[in-house]
Amino acid sequence: MALIVHKYGGTSMGSTERIRNVAKRVAKWARAGHQMVVVPSAMSGETNRLLGLAKELAPATPGAGHYRELDMLASTGEQASSALLAIALQAEGLEAVSYAGWQVQVKTDSAYTKARIESIDDERVRADLDAGRVVVITGFQGVDEGGNITTLGRGGSDTSAVAIAAALKAHECLTFTDVDGVYTTDPRVEPDARRLKTVSFEEMLEMASLGSKVLQIRSVEFAGKYKVPLRVLSSFTPWDIDIEEEAKSGTLITFEEDENMEKAVVSGIAFNRDEAKISVLGVPDKPGIAYHILGAVADANIEVDVIIQNLSKDGRTDFSFTVHRNDYARAVDLLKDKVLPTLGAADIVGDTKICKVSIVGIGMRSHVGVASKMFRVLSEEGINIQMISTSEIKTSVVIDEKYMELAVRALHKAFDLDQPTA
Amino acid sequence: MALIVHKYGGTSMGSTERIRNVAKRVAKWARAGHQMVVVPSAMSGETNRLLGLAKELAPATPGAGHYRELDMLASTGEQASSALLAIALQAEGLEAVSYAGWQVQVKTDSAYTKARIESIDDERVRADLDAGRVVVITGFQGVDEGGNITTLGRGGSDTSAVAIAAALKAHECLTFTDVDGVYTTDPRVEPDARRLKTVSFEEMLEMASLGSKVLQIRSVEFAGKYKVPLRVLSSFTPWDIDIEEEAKSGTLITFEEDENMEKAVVSGIAFNRDEAKISVLGVPDKPGIAYHILGAVADANIEVDVIIQNLSKDGRTDFSFTVHRNDYARAVDLLKDKVLPTLGAADIVGDTKICKVSIVGIGMRSHVGVASKMFRVLSEEGINIQMISTSEIKTSVVIDEKYMELAVRALHKAFDLDQPTA
């Protein structure tokens, strides 16, 4: 008998039939004696429909106040789905009440369309829970100091659910999605990929930032910061599966140092095909060149990921970095127009046919030789490494795009990720 | 240079193209130097769509909390259309901000789905107006003392607009609809019907209660109570018509006693085909029979309109009244089952093929002979009057349905309503 938060995504809320299934699943948990808080997303397609209408009306260059109105607009999707879910819960014979973000004081800053949660007042929700009600709270939105509605950006309902779980000191936050957990790698690339029963929130952060789309990265940060046990599980299992079984399904994202010695050093293989590589060749090797090059790129609002600078030779060096593939052409033009002339570099070359493959694992912190094993495995497969980037819990390499699947499968096997763990 | 409230119905907000036209019309008024507050309805069809989803999910017998959730749901339609209008106004180069009912403290009671406005805090709106912003306020909704969202019932946006105009002491509230004003009678029945330039709010109340659907009756009550000048005009004129012309168009509902001696005694002919007549025949004429009959009807939640009791003859009388046609069968069954046996009446007879025709005019109060002129005109047309009901500003007759058009046209002509007034 615990306080449990359920979060359901837009697909799970996509029709009245699906909303009815969500209500039945929540009712099962409530009848098992749990105090239930549910955070639903808008019905799938609804947010896009609303923002599409806004786009038809918006001026070419939106001025002051535009983003405030977008949030007024977009927040209605979650308010509607929350009310519908409360109605469906009532049809299951439960007492249920829905609240918009402002009604339970989900306080955020005023950064419209990408606000950050600052605090949540749990008083009203606790009173309802104590009175035996299921409480539905809109995801994705809050209210700022001035009483304006804000939204948290795409995927913000994940963050709402975790923040609400943190405020209520919930036993666990269950995020129901269209996947049944976090995998050692994408099963479409490696059929032997296994679901992880647990993953540390730091590993999950790396997975998320490396392109795994299971959870919004901010929700994982929040879970880590407030130590909210967060479980990812499938909303496509029948609603009436055994609750004990369901409570153990999916992947649990933990925030405690794993004391389990059997835990694998590497937890998963992530990959990302969305980047492109740019090299500035023959740069005079003198202080300030990194700033000279990357400052110009940053000024154009282009995000840079992996950066390497080769050893200098004859007073000149090559400087390489990766950007999102969508920014590639703009970045190359910018460098040719503004940086090449003033820097005295020889040339700008680029490559969009690359990919980034990463091994992720909290165990890497204390294990030497993990990175070198990765390089050996790739070398044995004849894969040339173009760039390397490392952190405490991941090692990433940039390689030719055509070797991506081969690299992922070889690494998955080499680090025994296809073997069941205890 | 005045403070003006515009209200736009769902049809006027029905597409982004129409919302753009509303924005252009409001911008025209703002550029003429007026302080503008706009109250839009939800986009046409949206409220029905939302309530349709709720109906699919709702239990057969909705329990506690159901109507609260319906209001959470339905209120999103106006919030979305308000935000879209603010975005469209910004696209016209204006500063604009939209507020939901709770944000400007449109305080109501807690009667979900049919709440009544209790107060509006004008502070925030005034600050925006003084800063040169156009303020968009959601119609149809408010917030109760407990911070729950409420709605005012169908057509509630009219009431919202008038209440907001009252709170802000607006110069005028302009209600843009799909008709261009209030007519002396329905032009589909009498092609010579004329648009009234002004009509008193008491006359408008009678018109509204007699089936004219131009304005929700509560908005007229509100306008009368708070003396808000209320104008009904068309939203289908081109947005760029001359503002001086537009400001004088439509029909102005006034709250001041009309000092104009040229004003006609009768302002309009209203009619209603939705009623049915029921007669209880041979009722023993003793105290309490009206209560005995109508009490039973009222207990069954059936509303009664016109009531007459014939002169007694041989200690027995006939008692007749009208109900809404939808309630007719139920009322007759009820009377036959419960009232006939205990009352000792002879029979219950009824007629659904009747209609009610009324002459309405504030001038009737001080003019004798208006009602008798009505009866003479009908008599000259060979129309038999079945029932009569009078009030200070209207006289209604119940007649055979087949004479309705004839009666309306004859009265319209007899009271010179086809003649232009000064």
Please describe the topology of this protein.
Two copies of one chain form a homodimer.
Chain A: E1 3-8, H1 16-31, E2 35-40, H2 46-57, H3 66-91, E3 96-99, E4 106-108, E5 117-120, H4 123-130, E6 134-137, E7 141-143, E8 149-151, H5 156-167, E9 172-177, E10 198-200, H6 201-209, H7 217-226, E11 230-234, H8 243-247, E12 251-254, E13 268-272, E14 275-284, H9 289-299, E15 304-309, E16 316-324, H10 328-343, E17 347-351, E18 354-360, H11 370-380, E19 385-391, E20 394-400, H12 404-414
Parallel strand pairs in A: 1-2, 1-9, 2-6, 3-6, 9-11, 10-12
Antiparallel strand pairs in A: 4-5, 7-8, 11-12, 13-18, 14-16, 14-17, 15-16, 18-20, 19-20
Helix pairs in contact in A: 1-3, 2-3, 5-7, 6-7, 9-10
Catalytic activity (chains A, B): L-aspartate + ATP = 4-phospho-L-aspartate + ADP
InterPro entries (chains A, B): AceGlu_kinase-like_sf, ACT-like_dom_sf, ACT_Aspartokinase, ACT_dom, AKii-LysC-BS, Asp/Glu/Uridylate_kinase, Asp_kin_monofn, Asp_kinase
GO molecular function, one term (chains A, B): aspartate kinase activity
Write a structural description.
The structure is a homodimer of 422-residue chains. The first copy, chain A, has 422 residues and is of the alpha/beta class. Chain A folds into two domains: 3-254, 3-Layer(aba) Sandwich (Carbamate kinase); 264-417, VC0802-like (2-Layer Sandwich). Chain A is 35% helix and 25% strand. Chain A is built from twelve helices and 20 strands. An eight-stranded mixed beta sheet of chain A has the order 3-6-2-1-9-11-12-10, sandwiched between helices. A four-stranded antiparallel beta sheet of chain A has the order 13-18-20-19, sandwiched between helices. In chain A, strands 15-16-14-17 form a four-stranded antiparallel beta sheet, covered by helices on one side. In chain A, 47% of the residues are buried. Chains A and B meet through helix 1, helix 2, helix 3 and strand 3 of A and helix 1, helix 2, helix 3 and strand 3 of B. Chains A, B: InterPro entries: AceGlu_kinase-like_sf, ACT-like_dom_sf, ACT_Aspartokinase, ACT_dom, AKii-LysC-BS, Asp/Glu/Uridylate_kinase, Asp_kin_monofn, Asp_kinase.
